[in-house]
């Protein structure tokens, strides 16, 4: 049964994360997971809730990119085949990891992702390559593990790495988002059989907030310079990491 107060709270979380993701093409998972952690949710349930919601939100996004011709088949396959394996490994690690240990792992992860995004504002790449770069499959494996453990980070790692290596952003974002749908689905199934469905209010709120905010995120990406959106996302994730670090110290 949906608790409306919780639903509205988590709809706000989903909306805020989707605005960042829509403007940047990444960071929905790590932002929403960080916010859930700051609200006191256990790490495993936070990651599970985000992945349940992302199965729908990234699915809609990935299919839209597929219809628009933004998905490159070879890149998609290179990412998804190892990404789903990584998601399974990450989900199993998180479920069997004590809650306090998980927070000790996730806090530096959030801090590193925040710094990583800030670092991306200092770099740009104008080259465009048509081949799939070496190391793409291992990148998918690592991103899948960290995404399941951290509740997000798949797009932040894969999109920025592949674009930095000279691939066209449009095809990278499309392929990454379609792959993310299957990675989230596999992680969700793993969480479903280990820790259950969680609170319907949380999942419904994340989905509703993300769907409502999606058109506004699309408008933001047209009006805000890419480096500014990257900077804002990096500062947001970094702030979440600092907040969790302070909570651990207390």
User: What is the first-to-last residue Cα distance?
Assistant: 34 Å
Provide the low-confidence segments as ranges: none
| Count of discrete alpha- or pi-helical segments spanning 4 or more residues | 10
Rough outline: globular
Q: What level of helicity do the residues show?
A: over 70%
Mean pLDDT score = 81
Which structural category do the helix and sheet elements fall into?
mainly alpha
Radius of gyration: 17 Å
- Which series of helices and strands comes N to C? HHHHHHHHHH
Secondary structure layout:
Elements: H1 4-24, H2 28-38, H3 43-67, H4 73-95, H5 99-120, H6 136-150, H7 154-164, H8 169-194, H9 200-223, H10 226-249
Summarize the structure.
The chain is mostly helical and 250 residues long.
What does this structure look like?
The chain contains ten helices and no strands. The protein is globular, with a radius of gyration of 17 Å. With 250 residues, it is mainly α. The protein has one domain (4-249). It has helices spanning 4-24, 28-38, 43-67, 73-95, 99-120, 136-150, 154-164, 169-194, 200-223, 226-249. Helix 2 runs parallel beside helix 10, helix 3 packs across helix 8 (169-194) and helix 7 runs antiparallel to helix 8.
Descriptive labels:
250 residues; mainly alpha
